[in-house]
Amino acid sequence: MKLYYTPGACSVSPHIALCEAGIPHEIDKVDLKEKKTSTGANYMAINPKGYIPALQLDNGELLVEGAVIVQYIADQRPESGLAPKAGTMERYRLQEWLTFISSELHKTFSPLFNAAMPEDGKNIFRDRLAMRFGYVDKQLAGKDYLMGAKFCVADGYFYNMIRWARRVNLDLTAFPNVVAFEKRMEARPKVIEALKAEGLM
After folding, report:
1. Does one domain contain both 64 and 128?
2. Is the peptide bond before 53 cis (omega within 30 degrees of 0)?
C-alpha cells in the first residue's frame, strides 16, 4: 500500500492507522499547492479530487476519503481491534464518531486555515469548535479512548484534530479529558512512529 500524505494534514489519521495495524506501506509526500508528489508526479492524475489522504491499494485501486480509508485499514487486520466487526452496533458507533469528526470538527477548521478569512469570522468558527470539543470532553469522561478502554481508528482522527487546534490557537485547557486523551495518544509508540515518519517530531 502507498499513502499519499502532507505532513500534519488529515492524512496523519490513516498514517497512524497503518502503523497501529502493522501493515507494511510506503508514504509519498504531496505538495498540495503544486499538486505534485515527492517524485514529481501530477497528483491530480492520481487523485482528481486533489486532496489528501489517498491510499493506493496493492491491486492498484485508490481510496480517497479518510473515514473510509481508516476502516479499510482496520478491516485488513481484524485481529488488531482497530474497528469493531462490520454489521455490529459497535461498528455503527465507530461510524458515528468518524462522521462527527469529519463533518463537525474537520470541516469547521477550514476557515481557520484561510488567510483571507477576517479574524472576527475566524472567532465564530473557533467558538463552534470549542462547543464540539466540549461535547467530546464529556464523552471521554471515565474513558481512555472514544469508544472506551481500547484504541480505535476514530481516536487517530480525533487526535489529528487536537493537533490542528494547537495550530490555530484554539485553547483546549477547558477540556481536561481531551487534554488527558492527547497525552495518552502521544505516548503510543505507533503514533510516535507515524509522526516521526512525517517529520512532525
Report:
1. no
2. yes
